[in-house]
Amino acid sequence: xxxxxxxxxxxxxxxxxxxxxxxxxxxxxxxxxxxxxxxxxxxxxxxxxxxxxxxxxxxxxxxxxxxxxxxxxxxxxxxxxxxxxxxxxxxxxxxxxxxxxxxxxxxxxxxxxxxxxxxxxxxxxxxxxxxxxxxxxxxxxxxxxxxxxxxxxxxxxxxxxxxxxxxxxxxxxxxxxxxxxxxxxxxxxxxxxxxxxxxxxxxxxxxxxxxxxxxxxxxxxxxxxxxxxxxxxxxxxxxxxxxxxxxxxxxxxxxxxxxxxxxxxxxxxxxxxxxxxxxxxxxxxxxxxxxxxxxxxxxxxxxxxxxxxxxxxxxxxxxxxxxxxxxxxxxxxxxxxxxxxxxxxxxxxxxxxxxxxxxxxxxxxxxxxxxxxxxxxxxxxxxxxxxxxxxxxxxxxxxxxxxxxxxxxxxxxxxxxxxxxxxxxxxxxxxxxxxxxxxxxxxxxxxxxxxxxxxxxxxxxxxxxxxxxxxxxxxxxxxxxxxxxxxxx
Length: 489
Prior knowledge:
CATH class of the largest domain: Alpha Beta
Order of helices and strands: EEHEEEHEHHEHEHEEEEHEEEHEHEHEHH
Radius of gyration: 24 Å
CATH superfamily of the largest domain: Nucleoside phosphorylase domain
Shape: globular
Strand content: 15-25%
Distance between the termini: 34 Å
Low-confidence stretches: none
CATH architecture of the largest domain: 3-Layer(aba) Sandwich
Oligomer: single chain
Strand order of the largest sheet: 2-6-4-5-7
Mean pLDDT: 89
Helix content: 25-40%
CATH topology of the largest domain: Rossmann fold
Number of strands: 18
């Protein structure tokens, strides 16, 4: 370490054969780095530092295997694909403690080797170190009496990208392959963005995510949450709204925010994190990508889109459901990360859960269910007013693709689920039929929202509750894994 760097004691890597002890050490190392940066930064705001650069590092966990012995081939996670050294930097081990413990336990059990914990050589940016300390904030460049990046490390895009999940990762000089799909800086970046876009802390997000594109669903979700809080046997413990306002009783008061964030999020929590989060991503593929880019670092067990769509078939009626079994991607926003020639398949476990939930809520089964629900291709476009184009363009392509519905978000959410290895699905509700003269007009829309939103949301909730009871090894199947995968989910 150059003499101009001031840094906490790095210590040596320690070996662990107990996952909980390894995670406890990760928390200890992380806290040392954070406390060092918060302390030195606060001091620098009072007196301009003259003693060199202040630097602290992210903790790291690593494993080394030497055997090509076959691991249980039914598992899609919990093991490395080939012998060698595998490592990952870690942030917020307190937030991810259960996840880390689970992943490390599987690694040690499957490979019969210990894990090593110590400091990495990746500097921790001061912005992320102080993010969870309300007493400290980083001023904008030029606001302090010294140049920030001359004294402290700032975010580095070279370690904040998606090269691991995109399959473009190149091992460093030590030849270590990644253990996890995201680096510590990439996770920290998304945690900060989540708090900004949703106005709720990452700690509140649950393992099952519902996305919608209309605020109407929020009131229904809150009503359901209050009903669950009134039922002491429901397993739900609290409901969190905008600004981290939290209630634990059915009659608890939630303040009305003066201003909603870009993507309001609401969390019906369970003690083990297996509750349901609802995110109103609004309209458009860019919003859908932004939300899923950042929620993905929390490693949810499933996310579903329950929004509105345009029905493309004359046989459909307003209020009918569409269960997507394929996606026509004309959203454009993911083309650089996931080429359009990559298929985004329907996942059987999700499809079954959604279909059974529709049958349960509507009390229709078998052939009768076809009266209300159609399975088919959903197209997602980046042009909200696509119907104003000449018919020879989008309409012809939609017909050739056999699409039955169109929106602006579903294909993006599914494609990012595929890219991030998060099980995904889509159940849409037909709110207009522009090709057949049934436009979404004010009076029609009011009647539609009144009658359909409640049961559509309930279908999504029931599907999530069904998936919650599914073993993880079944839900996180091999269908979402590539040739050489990270051991962590």
